[in-house]
Structure formats: C-alpha cells, structure tokens
User: What shape does this take?
Amino acid sequence: MARSRVNEAGELMSANRNSQDADIQRTRNGAIMDFPTTETSLDIKGLTLAYDGKQALRDLTLRIPRHRVTAFIGPSGCGKSTLLRALNRLHDLNESVTRQGSIHLEGHDIHDPRVAVAELRRRVGMVFQAPNPFPMSIYDNVAFGLRLQGGLSKRRIDDVVEWALKSAALWDEVKGRLRASAWSLSGGQQQRLVIARTLAVEPEVLLLDEPASALDPISTLKIEELIGNLKPHLTLVLVTHNMQQAARVSDYTAFLHDGELVEYGSTDTLFTHPRLRRTENYITGRMVG
Amino acid sequence: MNIPGHTAVPPARSGRWRGGEGPWAWWCAMAVALSLLMLGALLVLLMSRGLANFWPASVHQLTLADGSQVIGVPVETRQRPEDAGSERRYFTANRDASGGIWRWVNVEDIRQDSAPEDLVHIKRMRWSDFLGRLVAVNIDGRRFDGELAWQRLEERLDEIRQQRQLRRELEATQIIPLIRRLESSNGPESNHDPGSNSDDVRIHQQLAELQQQARDLQSGMTGAVLILETAEGRRLEQPLEEVDTVLRPNAMSAWQKVGRWSSGVWQYLSEGPRAANTAGGVWPAIFGTVLMVILMSILVTPFGVLAAVYLNEVAHQGRLTRLVRIGVRNLAGVPSIVYGVFGLGVFVYGIGGQLDEWFFAETLPSPTFGTGGLLWASLTLALLTLPVVIVATEEGLARIPMHQREGALALGATHLEMLTRVVLPMAMPAMLTGVILAVARAAGEVAPLMLVGVAKLAPQVPLDGEFPWLHLERKFMHLGYHIYDAAFHSSDVQAALPLIYATALLLVLVILVLNLTAIFLRHYLRTRHGAFARQ
Amino acid sequence: MPDTPTSDFSAQSPLHSHRYRQRRDRLARALITAGGIGVLLAVLAIGVFLAVEVLPLFLPFSSTAPELELSALWQAQPYADGLEYRWLPYRLDEGEAAYVSLVPLAWGTLEAAAWALVLAVPLALGAAIHSSLYMSRPLRARIKPTLELMEAMPGVVLGFIAGLVLGPWVEQHLAIALTTVLLLPLGVIVLAGVRRCLPSSWRLVLSLRWASMWLIPWLIVLVWLAHWLAPLLEGWWFGGDLRLWVETQLGWDVEARNALILGLAMGFAVMPGIYALAEEALVDVPRDLSDGAQAMGATRWQTLTRVVLPVAWPGIFSAVMIGAGRAVGETMIVLMASGNTALMNGNPLDGLRSLAASIAIELPEAGPGGTHYRLLLLAALALFLFTFLVNTLAELVRTRLRRRFRMLRSDS
Assistant: This one.
C-alpha cells in the first residue's frame, strides 16, 4: 500500500532493494519510516509543536529504541533541538507553546497531568550544547541532582559521585581536586562533568544536544567514546550537525527538515542508501545546512 | 587630480580650527573638568571646615586704636561694603559678660596683635564658650593662683568628669526606666491614687533613693569655682561643674593640639548635642541614622527580592508584566517627598492611628504609633528604596544565562529548587548591590523623614535595656535632619556653622563609603559575569 | 564502565511520585506570586492613595471644604489692591477668606527646575559628548564612577552649602560670580588656541583625550583671575557696584537665597543623572555609523553633529526628561536654598517656594483630613503625576531607541 504511493512520488530511489525490511512505512506526511525492531523507549505519535502560532514540529511520529543511540540530523532550524526539548518537556518553560500529539516514555504518557515534571526530567536527562556547570565545586555539581532527591547519606553521595565521574571518564582527571570550582576545568572536561552530573541521578534516557559542537577534536573524540560506553545502559538521543559524528556514533538516524520527519532508519542504511533524494542531498552536502 | 566630467572639488574651507576639533570640543572637555572641579571643591570645603572645627585655634589679644582690648579667635576677613578698608570677624565668646559672641573689628584699627600664652579657652555647658584669663581657682574655700591653679584645676576637672559619667549612667540605666515604669503603671487616664498600689510605693521608694544618690553625685561636683577675667578686665566666677574643657591654646605644642583635636573628634562622635544642636556631639543622630537604615534594609531586602523574583521568574512575561516593570522603574523617579506624604497618610495616620485605638487606647489622645516614629520612617524609606532593589535584582536575574536554569531543571529540579539552589545564589551580588544602593539613598534622604518621624532632639536612642529593647514607636535623630535643623532653626547660624560642616562631612563620608562599596561590588559582578559569557 | 552502585539504570519508578517536592514547589510558587503581586500593588498604591485623599476637595457637597471655592486653586483672588495669586493656607484655619492658589507654588517649582536644567543640561551633555567621543578609555573608566558619586551627594548637604555658604557669598560678590561665568569658556578657548602654537611634543602631553584633567588647574587659575578682573569689570560697565546696578537699573531684588543659587545646587544634583543616560545613548550608537563618517574625512565633532546626534537624540531627550523629573521633586535643596517665599516673578535673583518644599514645611502641622491637608496632598499628587508621566515618556522613548539600535546593528 505504502510502496505504490512512494513510487508515485518518484522520490524513492531504491524502494525494492530493502523490501526484505517489512517495517518500511510511509507516514501521513510522506516520510519514510524504517522502524527499529528493538524495544521502544520513547514513542512519539503525531507530535505538532507551535511557538506563538508558528509551527516548529509538524505531525511527527517516531519510535526511539531502548539502549541504542539515535541521532537527529537536519539543517539548522529544522526542529531537531525542539524535538529533543519536547522529550523532557523543557519547552514547558516557554508559555507560548501549543502541542498536539503524544509522547510515551516506557508506556507512560509524559503529558499526563499527574506526571511530576521534575521526576520526568530526572529520568530523561539532558546535556546541552555549551557546557553549563553550576558555579560550585566539581563535587557539588555532581551531587546537585542527588541532593534534590533527598534522604541520601553523605557516604552514599560520595560513592555515587565517584561512580558518576568514573562513568563519565573524568574521575582520573579530577579526583585530587573535587572541591575546586567546576569553572576551572577545560571545556571538554566541563562537558564530561555535565554528563557525570546527569548520570548521577540515574536517568533512563540521555538527551544530547550537540554535545561536542563547542569542543576541540580530542575532547569530541572522548565524548563520542563515552557515548559508546554508555549505550548498553542507557537510551541515548543525539542531536548533531556533524554528519560524520552521526555516522560514527549512532545506531539509528532520523533526518528532519522544516519541522517534519523526512527519513528514519538504521544509520547504515540512511547514510549508505538513502531512500529519498532530499536525504541524499543533505548528507552529501548538496543542501545548504 | 582631474576627473573628466567632474568639477574640481573646492579646497577645504580654511578656518582657524582647520584640522582641530573646534571650540565646542573644548567646551565639552571643560564641562567634565568643571564638574570634577565643583565636586572636588565641595569635598575640600567640607573636609577643611569640618575637620578644622576641632583644632584648638590660637587666641589673639588685640589693642585697638581707641585703647580698648579685644580677646578673640579670628574667623574671617572681608572688604567693608562702605569703603575700601577691610574688617575682620572675631569669635569673642563670653555671651554672659558681653551679650554677643562675635565682634567685627576694622583691620586698620588694630594697633597691637599678640597671642599671649596665658589666654584660656573654656568650653562651658551654658553660656557657650569663655575667652580670657584665668586669675585663680577656688576649691572648697581655698584659693590657688598661677601655675598651681592650673594643676588643681585639671585634677579637679578629671574628678568631675568621672562623677558626671557615673551620674549619667545612673540616670540612664536606673532612674529613667523606673520613671517609665511608673508612667506606664498609672497613665494619665487612670484615676487611682498613686500611693494605693504597693508595687508603686516600692518603686517610689527606690526612685527616691536613686535620686538622692544622683543629688549626692551632683553636689560632689560642686565646690570649685574659677575666677576669670575678660578682655575688658571684668571678673567672672565660673562654677567648675559647668565646665567641659579648659585649654590654653597658645601654650599648646603642635602635638598637644593634635591630641586635643583627636579627642575633640571623638567627643563629637560619641556625645549628645548641647545648646540646641549648635554644640556638642552627634552620637544620637549617628545611632538613629544607622538604626533606621538597618531596619529599612531588613524590610526592603526580602520584599524587593520577592517582587523581583516574581516579575522575572514566575510571572507570565506579557504586556502587563512589561508595563508593571516600567511602572516600578518610574517609581524610582518619583520625588521622595511624595513617599513621605504616603507614609504620613497611610502608615502614621492610617495604620498607626488604628493601632493606637486597638492597643494603646489608654494613652489616647497622646498617640503612640499614631505619630511619626522609627518604624514608620523605616517603612517609608523601605518603600522609597524598593524600586532600587527590585531593578537591581531583576538585572542580576536577567543576566543569569538560560542554560544554567535549564541545567538545573534537566537534573530533575523543581522550579523552586532551581531558584533557591542555582539562580538566587548567582544573583546574590546583584541583590547586594541593590541593597547597598538603597542604603546609600536612604541614608541621605531627609525630606520624607521630616513627615514621618525624625525629632529635633531625642537624646534617648530608640534602643535600650528596657523591654522590648527596640522602641519602634519612638522618634529618633538623623544626621541629615540635624544639618537642616542646625542650619535653619538655630538662633545663631554662625556659631553652629562649624558643627554643621562636621556633620555634613560625616554624612557625605558615610554615603561615599556605601556608594564605593556598591561600585566595587558591581565591578566584581561584571567581571564574574564576563566569565559567564565566555562559558 | 565501572560497576554501578545502584541496581539498574532503568529502574522503573512511576512518573508521578515525589508528591512532597511537587507540592512544595506549587506552594512556593503561589506564595511568590501572592507576595510579588502584593509588593507591586503596595508600591503602585501610592498614586491611588493620593487620588482618594484628594477627591473630597472636588466633590460638590463635601463637608471638608465648605469655605473653599475650587477656582481659588488656580485663579487670581482679590488681595490688597488688585487680583493676585497667593498661597496663605494658614488663613484657612482661622476661617478667613482662603488664599490657596497653587499657581505660585507651581511657578516656583518650574522656575527652580528650569534654572537647574539651564545649568545642568549643558554641563551634562558636554561631559557626555566629551567622555563618549574624546576621552581616553582608562580615564573614562575612572570618571564615570566619580560622577556617579556626585549624584549620591545628599540634598541636605548641597542645600546647606548653597543656602548658607554660597548664597551669602554670591550676594556679596555678584561681580566675581558673573566674571567667572564669562571668563571660564573664554579662557578655555584661549588655552586651546595657545596649545595649537606649541611644539608637537607639548601638544601630545596636553592632548584632548586627557583635557578634562589638565584643564582643572587652568580653571582654578581662571577663577583666581576672575577675582582680580571683577572690580575692573564692575567699574567699566556697572558703575562700580553690580548689585546696586541690578537693583536700580533692572529693578530686581537681590536675595542671598535665590533661584540662581538654587539652580546651581540642583543642577549639581541632577547633572550626573543626565550625564549617565546621555552618555549611554551616545555610546550605544552603532560604531559603523560614526566610523563611516570619519572615514569620509569628517572630524569627530562633525561626525557627532551630523551623524551621531541625529540618531541619539531621543536618548538624550529622555535623559533630560528624567533630569527634569528629578529637579521638580527635589525637596531639601529647595527648602534650604530658596528662601521659601511664594513669589511669582521672573527675577532669578529673588526667592521662590516650590510644591515639594511647601509639603515638607506645612504637612506636619496640617491636621489630617482638613482642607489644608488635602490641598497639600493635591500638591503631592501633582508632583507624582508629573514625574510619573515624564519618566514613562522617557522610558518609552528609550526603549524605542534601543530597539532601533538593535535593528541597525543586525542590518550591518
């Protein structure tokens, strides 16, 4: 059913080549969906977001697999960061946002009025483009989220801080100066500190909003390595400008354009055999991003 | 160069200022220089006059053309309006002997001008100062002359000072609280006999004993009399207990003068006013100013921060919020006297009058809270400075980068936790700046206080050992109002002038220190936020 | 990856737990909202309070002011011989005919503010232009806070200096004061001319960038020179005595506490505020504009008058407005340096009485609820409305200007 309409559109270049993947579907607005077969962590259905009446996301449907890395790519202003912020309801800060559609985290509707937003955000952690450690010591930064939960002993916090810093591959660099200001760290270290801070509250999903765009190549490499190490334990969602990075790090990739999902599938397929010309144009750099 | 089709560019107009910036640029530079000069001149004037007041000036003895003698301290010389000659004003003191304390002398009439070492300058409790000679000292009937008189005089003066101190303490710590208790236990409205209450009887007895004690101390001070001689040769007898200090300025070395100067400054800072605010110290005014400012900042800080946090962090950022923000900003420009009117109408007459009816009905019609007082003054100034604190705090809050807030929220912090743990600590320097600016403004503000609670003379500070220790309903003295009062309501402005200079200098210094603190704090804040920006 | 001390990453917890923290958050938000709105209302209540208290004056059948004709507030009343504007509110209490015209007070207020602005605006604008255009950076970083300190000078001190020190002095030495005013701008130009003839090494030392510093000693010399020149000037033009000349030829009374002295003190007080805002407006003008003009060979002064000022003038205008608002409401300086006589004449050497000073003097003695009390509150309301409107206007102009600058910047 879907395939015939794709042919009509004339965009699908190799529809039959991957016909063994029974999951290829076309959504209402014509995007190619190659649904992952693993278990779903975040299930986005028909999501439309508008700021001040201006649509930022249009009727977006997407399933994000558990314990995999999913990358969102697309030209700037395509809505990939907006989508990321919708996943932990950070867009709530902006009052002029209107929303249609739903997002489910492990089967729970995150917009259910009974949901405690703070708890949702603990479970869906986020790392931002620019490292944003708080103006406190390294230790206090990592312990910040833990202390919010309350009821933890000093000893337990010490343990978790150490564990989180080790998980973020920062422990060896800072173990001697946990009481130093977090702002004394280098940019790459700061970003790993932010990741450690987020890991400390044990999220299930980690959203990464261009985590390496402000960093030098070596720091970028370290962050990418870290993402790989975290994959067995966490669902990771990565927004990136950098095509190579998406190809290197992610298992699945979604290409967004103009607030719409254009193509979604396993990273290998998307980068080597994109089904739509728009996707190909973008990943080969023929579309100005 | 000639370009075909173009007429040659006319040569630049050659004027006197060709190549330079022209006269206006120099006048602009003059504007800055003139402003700085005026500020500097003001500060230098206050400094020199304010501090010179405590320096023991040398006393001159003049012989005039008509043979008369004048003893005095030269104050100023000016051209006579009538002719080309000049005249000089001398401070001759001795109000009791000659009626006035100033004398204009034509400079040409001065035949002889000397500064003999035996001239004395006596500061007295009454009749202002004395200038002249010390003839003898009579102590308990024995008469001492010459150098011996000086020795005895100074020993005796020390004793008297100690006794005076003792008496003052006795009055302040024991007698006045007792009288207060008596007043409160039988107010003017109660009609029962003061003796009927056994408690009252006990208090009356205690009071009588204490007053006897005070009288004993007082009589212990009497007995010594100075025999003085004025320039005209008139003899005066001056009881020593009414003398504050005795100096021979012409005989003092520079070091002695420095010592005298510093003890004069100390007396000025630590004592109460005398002679209708034209002499003595300003301690109650310093205390009143500081106490009021502290109360004000305790009131203004939480409310100002609360309003700023609401405006910037909680309120919906729409047109209404923007209007309210402009409104608050503009209230900082509303004249302080209008706030005074509001304080008088709402706090004093409105709330204060109501409080009196409810809780202090027995003392009516004499008001307790229904008149200006410490509490209402602090509240009025808190309202006056509220916009300053709100604006400064808001600026601090707005400068905190969004990603710091998002970082906290992304870790599962609630809105409140984000505010208290990340945003407010980061906005702390801005809040402090706001509060310091508010304090600096409040310390210099006088007009609203005239309506809501300063007193011309309130030697009793509003903080003492008597329950409830801090008396919010009392009137208090204020440095700024002290200046106004001494300058406009004293009978002899010329006599009060040195002290006004000193008070003005003190007030300016306090305000300058506060402002400098705010400026440095803001500088520190900017550099720190520079670090934010690099993040 | 090291072992986690916890059991599992994806330990499932229901999304709607942590009721306590959530409830605390909601409660705190409600409290902040209530408190914030309360504080803001309290601050904004000032205008409402004044209006409510003043209202009975205008109600036709109010019991408070049966003896008061409203027209007496702004119309001349028969007094002695002829119609005059008089402010004699104490007669209200004695039941006599009321002379409660607010006109002389409003006149005094505006006259004082006008003189303050006449003195403050040229100083402030000149200083703003110099420090934004010519002054060296390190010097500017020092001068700005210094002028801020000038603004912090308490009014009571300025009033004291003006009323008790400067006023009597100027009354005695009118000629010196006049000569100084004339000599300062002249002397500066002479010095600038002399500087042009100096060798270039000297001219580097005496640069315009540092002019505000090295001009100070020259100004002191000029003031001293004025002392010396004044008698000559007085002899040539005014028959030896300027004061006599003013009194006989112009028919002006000369008071020690007069509008000019008052204007000087108040100008001193409002100048730093105007300076700060005007300088901000000048500095905010996008650099590209002035750079472009200078690249075409304009001097900095030409750039200023032809490019920068036309763009920045709304900012400068709003700075002057805010200064005017401050001058109108200033109380202590007027109280101490004006003589407080409710006169209505244009003589700058005579005294005046302002609305604010009248409130400060009379309100403590006017009983609450009486006509005199309400009249004074009317005066306060007038002050409040005037300053509020002026400031709002200035604020609107300023925000509009900022938006324009932002657009200019984003264009370039």
Observations:
- The longest strand of chain B covers residues 69-79.
